[in-house]
Write a structure and sequence with these properties.
heterodimer; A: mainly alpha; MetI-like fold; 14 helices; B: mainly alpha; globular
């Protein structure tokens, strides 16, 4: 084993150093764009440059921590992403169940359509969606926005949910069926408790995606008081950007923190690419 | 969830000897179809509806100005598109953006990082993939701010390159390169995760055997590793192409498609035409073109993926 190990060139001197150099460059290159964000957020009167003046202050954070700048947009984001994720998970459970448990021509057509529509560009759908929404006076309606977001995240959610449900053995359910339980009961009492990790992944995935969604609320919500943080942060940038870069950086960090925390919590509980491999196993 | 009216529970068929069959019926057909209703209703009303509407309104002159008169104009929007140099420019820039940032950038860099991280120490893996994934988790708008400030005159990159006399406003002189780099930064994690998962399935014995036979690093990659993860490469390429095709927020926040039309990809042009110049009909026609391109790639992807149990 050790002889073979010696032979693999990655463990030999010069190429080993080359690998480390490349990895170091990658790490630095991925870190540098964050530098301004971190530095500017704790410097009073920060400009666009990342000049470090060694002055530390939380004034930028204090300045943005008010109802109009942070609290209401973040609450809107929470409501919009949370409701979207809930509706998506709910609808995906029911659609995934027959797809996972029964073979039918309808199911096959449905599954192929689902896969197909995961690929359609949502950006392009927004123009007709806006036209329809404005005709029915649904623009600026948060529930209508949530329903559209849920519909657009459904295809991928159903696909993930089906893969998770496939992992729950049918034999467990059959025991329940013989005891007289209906499919709804066996779904609720047996399958769902066994796939809590899968449900969490689908929920968090949808939540994080919609938390960062800029284009859809940007098009469908005009009233500033109902806009989520993804949109108000852009408005803040285009209105005050030239003066208040420090505040923009502080706002960005506060807005980003929840999704980064959610993601790292999720990947700590489930190892690495767990949520992805199910979708991409080709 | 418990408040939904449950369909009458199904009569249980006890069929001894056939218990392990996946197709065993416990729910009647009506209930099975009924389970699709919430998803079908949502997808039908909010997804398929707008798509059909798009097909219809691309052939009209519907405008945002509230004019009641909407006329059927046939192929006029598409004729205008064919003659519109700005549209062709936007399509070309979209192609450059997709090939540059997804196919070449994210895909190659993701594979490279996944390969280099194989067998590294836990700390190295955590630091490098942690940073790459951090760039991916950051919301689109924030990623755009980071790159806007990074590339701005006096920004971090400018400060570094200033030492070698390359100081300039990258967002103005090379806007496409700027948005491509930003999108590589933001999207590489996806490819990296896909390839890390794929490489985990490559048995190390094959590498070692090839190495004993005297294969160089490059030969092992070319003749052992790449053929084994071919399927993952193809599906990854399709997925990132589809994700990149309609990218809007990142480009819009960084350059607004400018200066002039130098970074105006088709989604940006479509947005400006629809919502700034109020030509919803023309904008929808462009949306339809984007949807068609997406549909072609999506069909290839669906053909490639193996749907088990079907």
């Amino acid at each position: 084993m050790s002889v073979i190990g010696e032979l693999t060139s990655a463990r030999r001197g010069p190429s080993r150093i080359a690998v480390w150099v490349v990895l170091a460059i990658v790490a630095i290159a991925f870190f540098l764009p964050f530098l301004w964000l971190i530095v500017a957020s704790v410097q009073p009167g920060a400009a666009l440059s990342a000049d470090i003046s060694w002055k530390f202050s939380l004034k930028n954070f204090a300045d943005v921590l008010n109802v109009d700048t942070i609290y209401r947009p973040m609450l809107n984001s929470l409501i919009i992403s949370g409701c979207t994720a809930l509706i998506t998970v709910f609808a995906a459970i029911f659609a995934a169940y027959p797809l996972s448990r029964y073979r039918s021509r309808f199911g096959r057509v449905f599954l192929y359509s689902i896969l197909f529509s995961t690929g359609l560009p949502i950006t392009a759908v927004m123009v007709p969606v806006y036209t329809i929404y404005s005709q029915f006076e649904l623009t600026d309606s948060v529930p209508a926005l949530i329903l559209f977001m849920a519909a657009s995240s459904l295809p991928f959610a159903i696909w993930m949910m089906k893969n998770f449900m496939d992992a729950v053995p049918v034999s467990l359910e059959e025991a329940a069926w013989t005891d007289g339980a209906g499919w709804l009961q066996s779904l609720w009492r047996i399958i769902l408790p066994l796939m809590v990790p899968g449900l969490t992944v689908v929920f968090v995935f949808t939540f994080v995606l919609q938390w960062g969604n800029f284009f859809v609320p940007f098009i469908l919500l005009q009233a500033p008081e109902s806009q989520p943080a993804s949109v108000t942060i852009y408005t803040f940038f285009s209105q005050y950007g030239q003066v208040a870069y420090g505040q923009l950086a502080a706002f960005s960090i506060l807005y980003t923190a929840p999704v980064v925390l959610l993601y790292s919590a999720l990947s700590r509980v489930f190892s690495g690419a767990f949520s992805l491999t199910g979708a991409v196993k080709g | 969830m418990t408040t939904t009216t449950a369909p009458p529970s199904a009569p249980v068929e006890v069929r001894p000897g056939r218990a392990r069959r996946r197709t065993s019926t416990s729910a009647p057909k009506a209930a099975r179809i009924g389970a699709f209703v919430p998803a079908l209703a949502l997808l039908g009303v909010f997804f398929a509806g707008p798509l059909l509407w798009a097909v219809y309104s691309a052939f009209t002159n519907v405008a945002l100005t509230g004019a009641a008169q909407v006329d059927f104009v046939g192929l006029d929007n598409f004729k205008q598109m064919v003659q519109d140099g700005q549209f062709w420019n936007s399509l070309l820039l979209t192609l450059v953006f997709v090939v540059g940032s997804a196919v070449i950038g994210q895909n190659t860099l993701g594979l490279l990082i996944a390969l280099l991280l194989r067998g590294r120490s836990k700390t190295a893996r955590a630091v490098v993939s942690g940073l790459v994934i951090a760039a991916w988790t950051v919301p689109e708008t924030v990623a755009a701010f980071c790159w806007y400030s990074f590339l701005h005159p006096g920004g971090t990159l400018d400060g570094i390159l200033g030492w070698v006399g390359l100081s300039q406003n990258w967002l103005y002189t090379t806007p496409m390169l700027a948005v491509i780099l930003a999108n590589v930064w933001r999207g590489t994690a996806f490819s990296m995760l896909v390839y890390q998962a794929a490489l985990n399935d490559v048995p190390p014995e094959l590498q070692e055997a090839a190495s004993v036979d005297g294969a160089s690093v490059w030969q092992r990659l070319r003749y052992v590793t790449i053929p084994l993860i071919r399927r993952s490469i193809v599906s990854n390429l399709m997925l990132i192409t589809l994700q990149t095709l309609a990218a809007f927020g990142l480009i819009y926040v960084m350059t607004k498609g400018g200066p002039g039309t130098k970074s105006q990809t088709t989604p940006i042009y479509m947005y400006q035409e629809s919502f700034q110049f109020y030509n919803l009909g023309y904008g929808t026609a462009m949306a339809l073109v984007l949807l068609l391109i997406g549909a072609i790639f999506s069909l290839i992807y669906v053909r490639l993926i193996k749907v088990e149990d079907l």
